[in-house]
Each structure stands twice: as C-alpha cells, then as structure tokens.
Amino acid sequence: MPGHGTDECSSLFFPAQARHNELRKNMSNQTTFTLLGLSHSRPLQLLLFVLVSACYMASLLGNLFIVVTVLMDPDLLQSPMYFFLANLSLIDMALSSVAAHKMLSDLLSQRSTISYGGCMAQLFFLHFLGGSEMFLLTLMACDCYMAICHPLSYAETMHRHRCPGLWATYWAGGLLHSSTQLVLVAWLPFCGPSKLDKFYCDVPQVVKLACSDTYVMEILIMSNSDLISLVCFLVLLGSYCVILVTLRGCFGDGGGRKALSTCSAHLIMVSLILVPRIFVYLRPFSSFQMDKMASIFYIIITPVLNPIIYTLRNQEIKEAMKRLRTRLWLPC
Fold first, then answer.
1. 20 to 30 Å CA-CA from 236: which of 69, 146, 196, 227?
2. What is the DSSP letter of 188?
3. Is residue 204 reached through a cis peptide bond, with omega within 30 degrees of 0 on the bond before it?
4. pTM over 0.85
5. Structural domain span for residue 286
6. Are strands 113-115 and 195-196 parallel, antiparallel or unpaired?
7. pLDDT band for position 124 (cuts 50, 70, 90)
8. Cβ-count burial of 106 within 10 angstroms (0-12 exposed, 13-18 middle, 19+ buried)?
9. Domain for residue 5, yes or no?
10. pLDDT of residue 111
C-alpha cells in the first residue's frame, strides 16, 4: 500500500515525527476515562449506594426546606444574611448533585466510565459551584462582622437592594475560577492510561493522566486555587477573630448569646467545608487514601449537615419553620 510505505519511510527517517504522529493518534482515541470509585466489592458497593442515596435525599430535602422557608417568610427574605443562607443551600444542592448522580449510577451498574466531555463538564461545575461557595462564605462572614461590629452602619452598608449585586459578584468569581481551571486542563494532551483514582473527575487526578510534562500546569492550577483559598481564609479568620473579641463582654445578655449562636453556626459550617478542601487541594498533586474520604465529606456529607446546623442553632430559622408549618396546615 502506498500510504503504508510512506508511513514506514517517515518512521525510518523521521523518528521524532513518527512519535508525534503516534501521540496524536493515541490522543484522538482518548474519549473516555475510567473512574476507579470507592470499592470493587459488590456488597460494599450496594451498601454505599444505600448510604449515599440516603445522604443525597436528606441533603436535597433539608436544603430545599431552608430555601422555601426563607422565600416564604418576608422578614427572613429582607435580611441579607438569610438571603445568602438560601443561596448557600442552593449551591449545596447543586454541588452534591454534580457528583452524586454519577456516583450512584456507577455503584448500581458497575459501569464506571465517563466521557471526556462529561469529565470536563463535571470538573467545571464542581469548581464553579465550589468557588462560588467559597466567595459566598467569605461574604457571609463579612455580613456577620458588619452586623455585630458596626451595627449603626449595617443597614446602610448591607441593605437588601445590594444583595443582587453581591450575588452576581460571587457567582462571577466562581465562574472565573472554574473557567481558568478548565482552560488549563483542556490544554493538556491525554493518551492513556485513562484511570482516575476517584469517584468523580477532579483537577489533580485528571492532570496526572496527561502524557506531557505538567509541572508548569500544576503550578498554575495550584496558584489559582491557593490564591482564592488563602484570601478567603484570611478574610474569614480576620472577621471571626474580630467578632469574637467584640462579643467577649456580651455573652451574658440575650443579644450577645444570639449573635454568638449565629456566628458559631457559621464557624462550624466554614470548618466543615474548608478543612476537607484544604486537605485535598492545598498541597502538591500527590495521592493519599484520605483524599477520597475528604472528597466524600465535602461533596456528600457537608450538604446534609449544613441545614441541621442552621436549624438547631438559629432561633429565627426555627420560628420561621414553625410559621411555615402553620401556614401549610401541618402539625407542629
């Protein structure tokens, strides 16, 4: 065959070009990734399916109940803090849905593959929602700081009409973060093997599959994540330190206890979200067995715990839920 002879001559006289052509051929065949998941034991997979399904449904119902409660209560809806809380619940529902659907399908069917396009979409939405959540938590900490440390100027600074602008800002920040991550990963060539040691597509695992030197890309990707995490962490830490110092002499009165309860709920929630993510992302791209556990915690478990934390520690939310049950003719 003439074409076959041409390829042989090209391989003989231009070995570098031949290797490049073979690499491009392999890259063109890289259309799917295999997710290794959590376990290959069928009984354990079925048990995980039941547990993850229960957590996912609890997350959807709990967060949806908070969203409905805030939307149906005029007093809560006019408060920036509860407006942001409802948005946090929406993010939690969306974030858990991005990975949970695929995880449950794989556990049930034992077909743990995902297309290249599906992998990139999953990666994009996870970082879009995760980045937006980081910015939202920082904004909620600033809101709490203004309400407690500058109560006289709070109504002017954080009035209800500024909420849409702040809403657009943290979503834009999440979009910029995820778009940057996606562009950096999409530039990498993939030519096999295609096994991801996780139950969803994430940047560290996908980058390790690239068949080229990824050192520069890893530095850029980590710089992107580290900068956002560091800035948000410093703002959160500074805000809550000032809040705790301000509340130090007010623990005995009702207002001080109420503010402390609200801030403690924020602190618990921030810790549950930030600590696992810091463990996974704020270090070089190396694998640890605890990565999967940390990922399960902030993807599956944390969205379940957030509604519980707020309903147990926030008196206004509990009262609003009672009013909602009365309005819907449900038993108290």
1. 69
2. S
3. no
4. no
5. 40-327
6. unpaired
7. very high
8. buried
9. no
10. 74
